[in-house]
From TrEMBL:
Record-given protein name: N-sulfoglucosamine sulfohydrolase (sulfamidase)
BP terms from Gene Ontology: glycosaminoglycan catabolic process; heparan sulfate proteoglycan catabolic process
SUPFAM superfamilies assigned: Alkaline phosphatase-like
Transmembrane domains' residue ranges: none
InterPro entries from the UniProt entry: Alkaline_phosphatase_core_sf, Sulfatase_CS, Sulfatase_N
One Pfam match: Sulfatase
Required co-factors: Ca(2+)
Keywords: Glycoprotein, Hydrolase, Signal
Amino acid sequence: MAVGHNVLVLLLAVICCVGECKKRNVLLVIADDAGFETSVYNNTVVRTPHLAALGRRSLVFQNAFTSVSSCSPSRSTILTGLPQHQNGMYGLHQGVHHFNSFDGVQSLPLLLGQANIRTGIIGKKHVGPGPVYPFDFAYTEENNSVLQVGRNITRIKLLVRKFFQTQRKEEEERPFFLYVAFHDTHRCGHSQPQYGAFCEKFGNGQRGMGRIPDWKPEYYTPDQVKVPHFVPDTPVARADLAAQYTTVSRLDQGIGLVLAELREAGYENDTLVIYSSDNGIPFPNGRTNLYGSGTAEPMLVSSPEHRERWGGTSQAYVSLLDITPTLLDWFSIPYPSYCLPGTPTTPVSLTGRSLLPALVSEPSPAAWHTVYASQSLHEVTMYYPIRSIHQGAYRLLHNLHYRMPFPIDQDFYVSPTFQDLLNNTLAERPTGWFKTLQQYYYRDRWELFDLRSDPEETVNLAGDPALAPVLESLRHRLLKWQWETGDPWVCGPDAVLEDKLEPHCRPLYNGV
Ligand SMILES: *[C@@H]1O[C@H](CO)[C@@H](O)[C@H](O)[C@H]1NC(C)=O
Ligand SMILES: *[C@@H]1O[C@H](CO)[C@@H](O)[C@H](O)[C@H]1NC(C)=O
Ligand SMILES: *[C@@H]1O[C@H](CO)[C@@H](O)[C@H](O)[C@H]1NC(C)=O
Ligand SMILES: *[C@@H]1O[C@H](CO)[C@@H](O)[C@H](O)[C@H]1NC(C)=O
Ligand SMILES: *[C@@H]1O[C@H](CO)[C@@H](O)[C@H](O)[C@H]1NC(C)=O
């Protein structure tokens, strides 16, 4: 956290309150499995006028990353500022997966509530336990259909309106934090296949699909779509992407409705608006991977108090771990001192930083050039711990259990793109993909990529003697971050963590 800046903001807040106290609110919009399929990031095919309008009022980050490529873990990091291995949400929350954050975690909604800020959530929550993530106003999958609160943009619009109406009724109007978590553009094939691979037919007015009054579906043909480098270029994958694009149009129009409600309720000029997504798109090498294709995220930050860089772009490396420090900075709330199981004797500290200074001027590249990531599971059966660091031109991944095949999730398994890849591989036909399934399943323990010469991450340089010092330095920094964040996996896979008295790694002599 930029401490100096915090103090300044706190000071300003105090000064302002002597005269007229300026209200500050937050609207956080998180899409589900969404990527760069928007004109804001120069996709010239998909039509996203509402995101484009928000982009003109935002600083657009070109190097924003999630710290974990899985839904519940990512949402837990957004709402705590702590990586999954530190807050305890190692995998998915729902059903048999059953993951939760530690009871003692001081989450963003908890801290904001204690600071007398009204909290609301509409859409996909997917984190727990309840007392760690309390919201004053909640319409989520916990007591509603996730299709209604997460994809029916008319319903979402009405819920946002209800939030603002009840906000107005409050005697002493409190500042608010409203978190709108769309379920678009998540896949649908595993849960509601009748609506299409991306639920792109849900509410489109066709027979049996119902109607979402505010949605005007946009359709695309397979030959139109832009195939990302990590998606196989086949007719099946193109049709899959075209369906995804249609769902993007529902997300975009939904964002337009939410922003219109904000404007009509009169909060546009005192609300910080952040738009991002939880993890990579649900295609091979995307979601559940810590490669760039699984971790790069759209990130728009729109502050009515920082208009200097509206419509501009930033190269600064930023993380979803920065969202909690940014909001605490915006509201001038200090982070409390407390401990968690991973570091029982050292108080928890946030390793992210407030993004507000970047809204004023581009940060020095030397200072904002490192992001970390940490994955343990997705579904409960998908144990595949990875730790990674991305610094400057290099990304280093540590695949702790590299001798196991990389696991595949249920939702992705049934997707047309993956079925096509399996079929083509089995039949020894060309797959149209940039790697083989064998390579995808079996990875090296260390993977090092030079993103200047190899942005698609195809050549592992970990064994290159010329890069040995780079590898060593990255490994050292990654380990340092793991110790700082109380990572229980810090000694794996060739040692055991002994944490009585002085925590240290004791060797296993297991040959890895
Ligand atoms: C989009 O392209 C323009 C022109 O090449 C470039 O200046 C801008 O930075 C790009 N925006 C993003 C978000 O990549
Ligand atoms: C939905 O459930 C949440 C948490 O269980 C609760 O706080 C909220 O009041 C409920 N909302 C409605 C509308 O029932
Ligand atoms: C979406 O929500 C609106 C408002 O609640 C409702 O009238 C409409 O039937 C819903 N559409 C679908 C497809 O469920
Ligand atoms: C918000 O600020 C803009 C520019 O200063 C101004 O034109 C607009 O009227 C303001 N809106 C409200 C609701 O105060
Ligand atoms: C894959 O092969 C199976 C069995 O032949 C077939 O039923 C299925 O339609 C194929 N899927 C794709 C996406 O080609």
